[in-house]
Amino acid sequence: MKTVAVIGTRGFPGIQGGVEAHSYHLYTRMSDVNVRLYRRRAYLTPQSSQAFPNIEYIDLPSTRVKGFEAVWHTLLSVLHILFHRPDVVHIHNIGPGMFAPILRLFGLPVVLTYHSPNYEHAKWSAPARWLLRQCEKLSLRFSNRVIFVNKYQMEKCGALGKSVFVPNGIDSVTASDSTSFLEKHGIHQGEYLLAVGRLTPEKGLQYLVEAANRLPQVTQVVIAGASDHDDSYRRLLEQVDTGHKVVFTGFTTGEDLRQLYSHARALVLPSVNEGFPMVMLEAMAYGLPIVCSDIPGTRQVELPEQDYFTMGNVDSLTAALTRLLAEPTHEQHYDLTHYNWDHIAALTRQQYQLAMSSTGNQ
């Protein structure tokens, strides 16, 4: 049985983030692979103690200092990897990918999953964005195989000959009849617009709040997510919420999140930047109507044209929400056959084998 070392994710379970959710669904399906998962100790939660037979947790020190935590934790992880050599290393995202040359220098096959171009995120300074672009170059050059979750990003990076498009996936779901979590937060069943994600500027949540202020038919906006490093963006959203319509539930998962999806009027995804938003697939699995910004990440799935609005344009979002709320409430039906996690896990294992073959490590 092969051993795969995984770096670049904060870890799972019970840890907020799209890469974290992706990793959870992927590695828990790899029963034929020994997964050595490097987790950031500062992010662990009580739920993080859940064990899986094929997964070994390596919990190393980390910080919550923006711009430093990923570099520090990945460096420690790489040092551990060099002394406890796996068969292949799987790196998530281009920032940690800066260490791909070192891993290759020591003869280790590297698979990179390119989730999103982090240098496009507003939270980074100009020097940090420059550094992330250099990380992107190193990641793409020195990885044996590159998995893109966004086919447009793969095309933008050019035909590398070692790249493959493998989307995010979604599990089958059943709606929840319970409303206990809604009642706890004073949320009105069937009436609220739902947004799910970290409280960061690239999620564009201020545009949703501004549009909600303009629409008397919008009585509540529920935002399920928490801040990573500081609460400045949440404070901004609270200032924009002049209509007092927003309910913050914090990082929400499990049955609580299931209830939010089950009883929402629609999902709104106003992001400025996304790789492949898993929350979109989750909403589709629950049959929710969707309104989303027109960016490459949201074009990964085929939605009706009317479901898109111009990114960052409050007038366009307001018009899209007005149209949506004028329609009768009904469950949507989406084709999700291409987003099967078992198939995605099989494709990923295939990339491991190709990476090992390219370095003679079989």
SSE blueprint:
Elements lengths: L2 E5 L10 H10 L6 E7 L14 E6 L8 H15 L4 E5 L7 H6 L4 E5 L11 H17 L2 E4 L2 H7 L5 E3 L14 H6 L7 E4 L8 H10 L6 E4 L7 H9 L5 E3 L5 H10 L2 E4 L8 H8 L4 E4 L14 E2 L4 H13 L14 H19 L3
Parallel strand pairs: 1-2, 1-4, 2-3, 4-5, 5-6, 6-7, 8-9, 8-11, 9-10, 11-12, 12-13
What distinguishing features does this structure have?
362 residues, alpha/beta, 12 helices, 13 strands, 36% helix, globular
Q: Any overview of this molecule?
A:
The chain is α/β, with parallel strands linked by helices and 362 residues long. Helix content is 36%, strand content 15%. It has 12 helices and 13 strands. It has a 7-stranded parallel sheet, with helices on both faces. A 6-stranded parallel sheet has the order 10-9-8-11-12-13, sandwiched between helices. The longest helix has 19 residues, at 341-359. It is globular and about 65 Å long. The mean pLDDT is 92.
Low-confidence stretches: none
Shape: globular
What average pLDDT do the residues reach?
92
Q: How many DSSP H or I helices? A: 12
The helical percent reads 25-40%
| Separation of the first and last Cα atoms | 11 Å
H/E element order = EHEEHEHEHEHEHEHEHEHEHEEHH
Adjacency order of strands in the biggest sheet: 3-2-1-4-5-6-7
* Beta-strand percentage range: 15-25%
Category from helices, strands and their pairing: alpha/beta
- Tell how many strands the DSSP assignment holds: 13
Largest sheet, in brief, is: 7 strands, parallel
Estimated radius of gyration: 20 Å
